[in-house]
Protein backbone atom coordinates (compact mmCIF):
# COMPACT_ATOMS: atom_id res chain seq x y z
CA UNK A 1 0.00 0.00 0.00
CA UNK A 2 2.69 2.50 0.98
CA UNK A 3 5.99 2.87 -0.78
CA UNK A 4 9.19 2.08 1.07
CA UNK A 5 11.19 4.99 -0.29
CA UNK A 6 10.96 8.73 0.39
CA UNK A 7 9.56 11.15 -2.16
CA UNK A 8 12.85 12.91 -2.90
CA UNK A 9 15.72 11.00 -4.49
CA UNK A 10 18.78 10.17 -2.43
CA UNK A 11 21.05 12.09 -4.78
CA UNK A 12 19.93 15.72 -4.63
CA UNK A 13 21.40 16.89 -7.95
CA UNK A 14 18.89 17.32 -10.72
CA UNK A 15 19.46 15.32 -13.91
CA UNK A 16 20.11 18.05 -16.47
CA UNK A 17 19.32 15.93 -19.50
CA UNK A 18 15.70 15.38 -18.42
CA UNK A 19 14.90 19.07 -17.96
CA UNK A 20 13.63 20.88 -21.03
CA UNK A 21 13.46 24.39 -19.51
CA UNK A 22 16.31 26.73 -18.71
CA UNK A 23 16.56 28.43 -15.33
CA UNK A 24 15.51 31.81 -16.79
CA UNK A 25 12.35 30.22 -18.17
CA UNK A 26 11.58 28.61 -14.81
CA UNK A 27 12.06 31.95 -13.06
CA UNK A 28 9.79 33.64 -15.61
CA UNK A 29 7.10 31.02 -14.97
CA UNK A 30 7.39 31.58 -11.21
CA UNK A 31 7.04 35.36 -11.58
CA UNK A 32 4.12 35.01 -14.00
CA UNK A 33 2.21 32.58 -11.76
CA UNK A 34 2.84 34.75 -8.69
CA UNK A 35 1.59 37.88 -10.45
CA UNK A 36 -1.58 35.97 -11.36
CA UNK A 37 -2.12 35.46 -7.63
CA UNK A 38 -1.19 31.81 -7.30
CA UNK A 39 0.17 30.69 -3.93
CA UNK A 40 3.71 29.32 -3.62
CA UNK A 41 2.68 25.67 -3.14
CA UNK A 42 0.37 25.89 -6.15
CA UNK A 43 3.19 27.43 -8.18
CA UNK A 44 5.45 24.51 -7.26
CA UNK A 45 2.73 22.00 -8.18
CA UNK A 46 2.18 23.71 -11.54
CA UNK A 47 5.90 23.66 -12.30
CA UNK A 48 6.13 20.01 -11.31
CA UNK A 49 3.08 18.80 -13.24
CA UNK A 50 3.19 20.98 -16.35
CA UNK A 51 6.88 21.63 -16.88
CA UNK A 52 8.62 18.66 -15.23
CA UNK A 53 10.56 20.70 -12.67
CA UNK A 54 10.83 18.45 -9.62
CA UNK A 55 12.13 21.19 -7.33
CA UNK A 56 13.07 24.77 -8.11
CA UNK A 57 16.06 24.42 -5.81
CA UNK A 58 17.58 21.86 -8.20
CA UNK A 59 17.35 24.25 -11.15
CA UNK A 60 18.21 27.61 -9.62
CA UNK A 61 19.70 26.64 -6.22
CA UNK A 62 17.30 29.08 -4.53
CA UNK A 63 13.87 28.53 -3.05
CA UNK A 64 10.76 30.10 -4.56
CA UNK A 65 10.48 32.54 -1.66
CA UNK A 66 14.04 33.77 -2.11
CA UNK A 67 13.47 34.28 -5.84
CA UNK A 68 10.29 36.23 -5.12
CA UNK A 69 12.04 38.38 -2.51
CA UNK A 70 14.71 39.32 -5.02
CA UNK A 71 12.02 40.63 -7.38
CA UNK A 72 9.96 42.25 -4.63
CA UNK A 73 7.03 39.87 -5.11
CA UNK A 74 7.29 38.09 -1.77
CA UNK A 75 4.07 37.81 0.25
CA UNK A 76 3.55 39.99 3.30
CA UNK A 77 2.87 37.16 5.74
CA UNK A 78 4.68 33.83 6.04
CA UNK A 79 2.78 30.94 4.51
CA UNK A 80 2.18 29.01 7.73
CA UNK A 81 0.89 32.10 9.51
CA UNK A 82 -1.59 33.06 6.79
CA UNK A 83 -2.81 29.45 6.57
CA UNK A 84 -3.48 29.36 10.32
CA UNK A 85 -5.33 32.67 10.15
CA UNK A 86 -7.58 31.31 7.40
CA UNK A 87 -8.25 28.23 9.52
CA UNK A 88 -9.24 30.47 12.42
CA UNK A 89 -12.44 31.31 10.55
CA UNK A 90 -13.91 28.56 12.74
CA UNK A 91 -14.74 31.47 15.07
CA UNK A 92 -17.49 32.58 12.69
CA UNK A 93 -18.90 29.06 12.76
CA UNK A 94 -18.88 29.13 16.56
CA UNK A 95 -20.88 32.36 16.61
CA UNK A 96 -23.70 30.56 14.79
CA UNK A 97 -23.30 27.15 16.49
CA UNK A 98 -22.44 27.76 20.11
CA UNK A 99 -22.69 24.13 21.21
CA UNK A 100 -20.11 22.79 18.78
CA UNK A 101 -17.49 21.59 21.27
CA UNK A 102 -15.23 20.08 18.62
CA UNK A 103 -14.97 23.38 16.74
CA UNK A 104 -14.28 25.20 20.01
CA UNK A 105 -11.46 22.78 20.84
CA UNK A 106 -9.89 23.16 17.40
CA UNK A 107 -10.21 26.94 17.51
CA UNK A 108 -8.27 26.92 20.78
CA UNK A 109 -5.55 24.80 19.14
CA UNK A 110 -5.38 27.09 16.10
CA UNK A 111 -5.22 30.22 18.27
CA UNK A 112 -2.43 28.75 20.37
CA UNK A 113 -0.43 28.00 17.21
CA UNK A 114 -1.00 31.56 15.99
CA UNK A 115 0.10 33.03 19.32
CA UNK A 116 3.20 30.84 19.34
CA UNK A 117 4.08 31.90 15.79
CA UNK A 118 3.49 35.56 16.63
CA UNK A 119 5.87 35.32 19.58
CA UNK A 120 8.40 33.43 17.48
CA UNK A 121 8.22 35.82 14.53
CA UNK A 122 8.24 39.02 16.61
CA UNK A 123 11.98 39.13 17.37
CA UNK A 124 12.85 38.09 13.82
CA UNK A 125 10.94 41.00 12.27
CA UNK A 126 9.96 38.81 9.33
CA UNK A 127 6.69 40.64 8.82
CA UNK A 128 5.24 43.97 9.93
CA UNK A 129 3.11 43.57 13.03
CA UNK A 130 0.51 46.15 12.05
CA UNK A 131 -0.04 44.29 8.80
CA UNK A 132 -0.43 41.08 10.78
CA UNK A 133 -3.21 42.54 12.93
CA UNK A 134 -4.98 43.92 9.85
CA UNK A 135 -4.78 40.53 8.13
CA UNK A 136 -6.19 38.75 11.16
CA UNK A 137 -9.15 41.10 11.44
CA UNK A 138 -9.76 40.93 7.69
CA UNK A 139 -9.76 37.13 7.53
CA UNK A 140 -11.61 36.40 10.75
CA UNK A 141 -13.24 39.58 12.07
CA UNK A 142 -14.83 38.06 15.16
CA UNK A 143 -11.98 35.72 15.99
CA UNK A 144 -8.53 36.32 17.35
CA UNK A 145 -7.05 39.17 19.34
CA UNK A 146 -3.27 39.22 19.21
CA UNK A 147 -2.90 42.76 20.48
CA UNK A 148 -2.17 41.53 24.02
CA UNK A 149 0.88 39.65 22.71
CA UNK A 150 2.09 42.41 20.42
CA UNK A 151 1.02 45.51 22.33
CA UNK A 152 4.52 46.83 22.96
CA UNK A 153 5.12 47.53 19.25
CA UNK A 154 1.67 48.37 17.91
CA UNK A 155 -0.06 51.71 18.14
CA UNK A 156 -3.78 51.03 17.90
TrEMBL record:
Keyword field contains Transport: no
Signal peptide interval: none
UniProt entry keywords in alphabetical sequence: Ribonucleoprotein, Ribosomal protein
UniProt keyword Coiled coil present: no
GO annotation, biological process: translation
One term of GO molecular function: small ribosomal subunit rRNA binding
Cellular component annotations (GO), alphabetically ordered: cytosolic small ribosomal subunit; nucleolus
Family recorded in the similarity comment: Belongs to the universal ribosomal protein uS15 family.
Protein's name in the database: 40S ribosomal protein S13
Naturally occurring in which organism (per UniProt): Rhinolophus ferrumequinum
Amino acid sequence: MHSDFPALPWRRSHPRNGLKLRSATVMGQIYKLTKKGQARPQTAVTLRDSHGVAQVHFVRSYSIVRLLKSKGLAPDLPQDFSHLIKNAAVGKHLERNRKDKDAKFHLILIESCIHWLARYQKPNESFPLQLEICAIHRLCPGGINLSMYLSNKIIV
